[in-house]
Amino acid sequence: MDVGELQTPALVVEQALLTANLDVMSAALPGNRLRPHVKAHKCTSLARAQHRRGHLGFTCATIREVEGMACAGLGGDLLLANEVLDARRLGAVIQDGARVTVAVDSVETVAAAAAGGVTEVVVDVNVGLPRCGCAPADAGRIAELAGSRGLTVRGVMGYEGHLMMAQPVAEQARLTAECMALLTAAHADVGGDLISAGGTGTYAVNTWATEIQAGSYALMDTAYAQLDLPFANALSVLATVVSVSPGWAVADVGLKSLGMDHGNPTIPGATVWFCSDEHTTFAPEEPVRVGQRIRVLPAHVDPTVALHEALHVVDGEVVIDRWPVDLRGW
Amino acid sequence: MDVGELQTPALVVEQALLTANLDVMSAALPGNRLRPHVKAHKCTSLARAQHRRGHLGFTCATIREVEGMACAGLGGDLLLANEVLDARRLGAVIQDGARVTVAVDSVETVAAAAAGGVTEVVVDVNVGLPRCGCAPADAGRIAELAGSRGLTVRGVMGYEGHLMMAQPVAEQARLTAECMALLTAAHADVGGDLISAGGTGTYAVNTWATEIQAGSYALMDTAYAQLDLPFANALSVLATVVSVSPGWAVADVGLKSLGMDHGNPTIPGATVWFCSDEHTTFAPEEPVRVGQRIRVLPAHVDPTVALHEALHVVDGEVVIDRWPVDLRGW
């Protein structure tokens, strides 16, 4: 199928750029040094491409992602890097033969893991981002509690999410070192093989974690593109120009096909004015015509992907594959 | 089922508030004075509740919405209030017995309608919002062109979207009058029965349109709640507190379960700090505990609904129905 035949809006992935992104990251963080985060693409076909490169463990953000990965035969070592209060669906996945480890940071989440039939956990440690995770000094206590409930503690995790966009790199490295000092101290109290942390923004400077939970590097977005990373924007939303007026034009991509939390999308060669539910109004530098196809670059990949049913893998103007976004929902 | 048994995050609709919203609007704009916009809920079960109140025509924003409404037996008079460059799927819906009218604003969209097997159109007129719609002075020419292609022109539409939040009401009414003067002048050139316009923000002041395309009034959101409208927030996202730290807590609702283009959601009795993919970090005024259920109010209903698979209709703590969000995608 030709790209021109796709119904718009449609998520489009440039195969060559995706391949390069995957290869560059695999060279930097081979094998189990990388635990790819599937929340950034929600697509088992893309996860399979990461698995083929030797990354056998994956990070998930939702129970549905864990279930979907296991169902796709990619359940060899799944880390749900998130707290849950009802782990019964995870227990069922484990019963079916997958390996699932869940994050715990409290008495309640330890109890939920044990009650749900989960057998392995990591202690989630707050390393500076005000979100989940126990205080570093409490990690040992949580691990002991988990052990007393019969859970195996595989180690610690801690996400320095507030540093993903920190610049310059030297300062980012210094701040990351501070965060990881907290995590490695907690690890000394907890034990286990895993020190799981990091993301696309800190993959190169976080040398303390045993594994990096990066996800965005595969598809990228305009927010991460502001950093000096060796990954290219492989993802765009294919749109059709549906209306042209003097001074502006309108494409059929909007709030329902773009993650908007990082702001407006980017249209090369144009200034984006605003987005509506199904429209983006933009001022093109060169005239566009009604019916013309354009590419819209989302500001944030994760919530953009969650709005679509499929990724269309393209090579030039040819659609060579359609990958379902099969890990949506909860 | 009890609300406490719902897997979170989950969209929850208070039946009593929804019913009141629907009834208040039906009293203000009875029968065909209202053409409910399904983009705000994407749910044929909710559309059926609007249909039962005598609103037999509906507004749609996407071809998928048209297809889904027709498939649900609600295709008596569907207006696709949007331009399309490939109308073949609309032609197929018409072949199957539904009545579908599509907006046109250019030579190209008229040609697409005719080529796709559509037989009825409205001329979309720009009344001040820089988006789709021809210049008012061009409406007659577009209508003539449509007629020459064998299309029946049912009238005009024009969306004063830039005035939905205009305040105070007297100023909003004055500005709406200016916009509608453009639309009624265009209508004089075009002819036909329909002058379709308006939305939840202007339903009470737009007395020029023959029909109002309101949608948000049914479920509402915190943006519209800032206006002095007789509609209540019937929609919330049910969330579970998954982590509590000194000074803040974290709920399992985030960028993938909330439309973020209007900003952060609201948590009654708390200050929202920020949202991540699957988390909202907030400072509660009173202590919350891990496992506690809370309600999160989205800032913008339309893109929020598009992220979920179902609306759960509740009466107090009882889930009385599950309505699929069956009009998602394109």
| CATH topology value of the largest domain in chain A | TIM Barrel
Strand residue percentage of chain A: 15-25%
The N- to C-terminal Cα distance of chain A equals: 32 Å
Largest sheet of chain A: 8 strands, mixed
Q: Tell me, what's the shape of chain A?
A: elongated
The count of β-strands of chain A is 15
* Share of helix of chain A, binned: 25-40%
Q: How many DSSP helices of chain A? A: 8
Oligomer: homodimer
What is the CATH-assigned architecture of the largest domain in chain A? Alpha-Beta Barrel
Mean pLDDT of chain A: 97
- What is the CATH homologous superfamily assignment of the largest domain in chain A? Alanine racemase
Strand-pairing-aware structural class of chain A: alpha/beta
Number of domains of chain A: 2
Short description:
Two copies of one chain form a homodimer. By secondary structure, chain A is α/β, with parallel strands linked by helices. Chain A has helices at 15-28, 44-52, 63-71, 88-95, 107-116, 139-148, 169-190, 301-305, and strands spanning 10-14, 58-60, 78-80, 100-104, 120-124, 152-158, 194-197, 211-212, 235-245, 248-251, 270-275, 280-284, 293-296, 310-315, 318-324.
Outline the structure in words.
The structure is a homodimer of 330-residue chains. With 330 residues, chain A is of the alpha/beta class. The first copy, chain A, folds into 2 domains: 3-11 and 231-324, Beta Barrel (Lyase, Ornithine Decarboxylase, Chain A, domain 1); 15-218, Alanine racemase (TIM Barrel). Chain A has 8 helices and 15 strands. Chain A has helices spanning 15-28, 44-52, 63-71, 88-95, 107-116, 139-148, 169-190, 301-305; strands spanning 10-14, 58-60, 78-80, 100-104, 120-124, 152-158, 194-197, 211-212, 235-245, 248-251, 270-275, 280-284, 293-296, 310-315, 318-324. In chain A, strands 1, 9, 10, 11, 12, 13, 14 and 15 form an 8-stranded mixed sheet that branches. The first copy, chain A, has a 7-stranded parallel sheet with strand order 2-3-4-5-6-7-8, with helices on one face. In chain A, strand 9 and strand 10 (248-251) form a beta hairpin. In chain A, helix 6 crosses helix 7. The longest helix of chain A is centred in the middle third of the chain and has 22 residues, at 169-190. The radius of gyration of chain A is 21 Å and the shape is elongated. In chain A, 57% of the residues are buried. The mean pLDDT of chain A is 97. Chains A and B meet through helix 5 and strand 9 of A and helix 5 and strand 9 of B.
